[in-house]
Amino acid sequence: MLRAVRRLRGMPVTVADQALVSATNFLTNVILARSMPLDDFGRFALLYTVLLFAVALQLGLIIAPMMSLGAKFEGADKKTYLSVVTLHALLFALLIAGGAVFCPDVLQTIIDEGGFVETRWAFVFCSAGFVLQDFIRRLFFTDGRAAHALAIDGVNCTVRLAVLAGLSVAGALSVAAALWVIGGASVLAIALALKWLALPGPAAALQLLIRSAWVSVQQWHFGKWLLGANIMAWVVSSGLLVLAGNWIGPGPLGVIRAAQNLVGVLLVILQALENLVPHQASARLVEGGSPALSRYMLRTGLVSGACIVALAAVFAGAADFWLRLVYGEQFAGNAAILVFAAINFVPLFVQVMASFVLRSLGYARGIFLASIVAAAGSVGLALVLVPPFGALGVMLAICAGSTLNAGALLLLVQRALKQYPNLPAK
């Protein structure tokens, strides 16, 4: 076990960075849940769910291909590749902001009672800054500059928590104020990162995109399946909250989001793995083929999996205690929701690790197909379980979707490893 721990090279800074980000997300939600009426916190949770949808799109189309393909380029080719992908991310951020500006009716249907009107411009600002800052931190990880990622995340997290805490003490926290603060902290972090990014001017950027069309082709060839898979994953993890909003209202949805936030400490492990493992797994495959990939994934899975199971047991074993301690009495009586939120991380971990293997082997199509099965099963169960069980029914449907996805991906991994190196890239 100690040998396995030592071989997780690069993990300390990655874990420290993700611990900082996850702790900030956790404290952000605690501050908001304690400072807002439950219905307002539920509305914030719904808008944040939409923001996570934008992140899922970027992850599938831009970041995940970059994390896996980046290890396969060297020298000038890698520099060109990362420069073009950065331009893709800038265009994506503008697209997301433009969508919020010109398609407000879509978001208005999610936030009831006209709640989106007063938050519209705050959401536009927050969405653009949030997705772009998330890309830049992943870019630094791919380029072997984890310390730079930690630096910009330090600025982002410190500013966000300090301002939110101040507004909470002053009694001035609202959904719009929270979005302005989150977006503003992201923009400050981006400003710091600019001195470490060699961005071309507009004319040079256009020439680079045209001259390096091969990068865009490879990104799309690899990312189209991951894009679909991430949309389906969002449906299972967050989209069900939007679907169930009309049935159970924003208050119970706020409880679900609070429970997910409480077990968010487990995301430190999953996100740290996302920042490190795809790049390392692809490198192992290039160096030693599928046997080297299998050994690396097994070592990493044993160490990180043990941590996931142990932490999930801590939260599930004393669920009501944790809810009362962190959020107060208004969240008491919802222990079952926290129990299943914790249990959900076990199949979610298996799902993440299996997807890393398939991404390294170039079989992104399989990830998409498994996600369709999971999303269909999860939504189908939600239609049956939510009307009689409310918020608990939502959590049960989410757990079922994660389990279906994990099982399908494991079957695909077993098949793909047997076929490699004769497995065609899909």
Written overview of the protein:
With 426 residues, the protein is mainly α. Helix 11 (250-262) packs across helix 17. Helix content is 85%, strand content 0%.
Topology overview:
Layout: H1 2-6, H2 11-35, H3 38-69, H4 75-102, H5 104-108, H6 120-142, H7 146-170, H8 175-193, H9 202-211, H10 213-248, H11 250-262, H12 266-317, H13 319-327, H14 335-343, H15 345-360, H16 364-389, H17 391-419
Helix pairs in contact: 2-7, 2-11, 2-12, 3-4, 3-6, 3-10, 3-11, 3-12, 4-6, 6-7, 6-8, 7-8, 9-10, 10-11, 10-16, 10-17, 11-14, 11-17, 12-14, 12-15, 13-14, 14-17, 15-17, 16-17
Question: Brief description of this entry?
Answer:
The protein is an all-alpha fold.
Task: Indicate the overall shape.
Answer: globular
Number of strands: 0
**Treating each run of at least 4 consecutive H or I residues as one helix, how many helices?**
17
Query: In percent, how much strand structure appears in the residues?
Result: under 5%
What value does the Rg take, in angstroms? 21 Å
**Helical fraction:** over 70%
Unreliable residue stretches? 1-10, 422-426
Structural class: mainly alpha
Give the N-to-C terminal Cα separation: 35 Å
- Write down the secondary-structure element order: HHHHHHHHHHHHHHHHH
Largest sheet: none
Overall mean pLDDT score? 83
